[in-house]
Amino acid sequence: MPICYLLSGLHIGLSVIAVVLFIGFSIAVASAAEKILNQNDPAQIVIDEIAGILVTFVGIPFNLQTAVLGFIIFRVFDILKPPPIRWMDATVSGGSGVVVDDVVAGIYANLMLRLFIFIFGFGAVS
């Protein structure tokens, strides 16, 4: 969450670039970790969750309400894995497979959070 707060102060373009670079880094780290641990998508890898939560908050005003709601929405999508997240989780392998489902859950959460902000007025969306 502190990284999300820091990114919220950046121009939206810089924030998107930073998150995309972090996603690439996450894929590389997850791929290396799978090889080291000799497991597919081991629970010890959590960088994918960080990538997903960063995507959740791209362009979102960061305050207590959006932080709590965004975190909850992301976790719901990450746990329930609605289509096509479940399919991606089962189909894509390697470091990309570890990260992609969380990134898509983050996209869903970002869109849902924007809807909540629009309806309930938690702040202006960037």
Shape: globular
Q: Which series of helices and strands comes N to C?
A: HHHHHH
Query: Structural class, from secondary structure content?
Result: mainly alpha
Which segments are poorly predicted (pLDDT under 50) over 5 or more consecutive residues?
none
Radius of gyration: 14 Å
Number of domains: 1
Task: Walk me through this protein's architecture.
- The protein is mostly helical and 126 residues long.
- The chain has one domain.
- It is built from 6 helices and no strands.
- The radius of gyration is 14 Å and the shape is globular.
- The two termini are 18 Å apart.
Task: Describe the structure using short key phrases.
mainly alpha, 6 helices, 126 residues
What is the element layout, followed by pairings?
Layout lengths: L1 H7 L3 H26 L9 H11 L6 H17 L4 H7 L2 H27 L6
Helix pairs in contact: 2-3, 2-6, 3-4, 3-6, 4-6, 5-6
Gist?
The protein is mostly helical. Helix content is 75%, strand content 0%. Helix 2 runs antiparallel to helix 6, helix 3 (47-57) packs across helix 4 (64-80) and helix 4 crosses helix 6 (94-120).
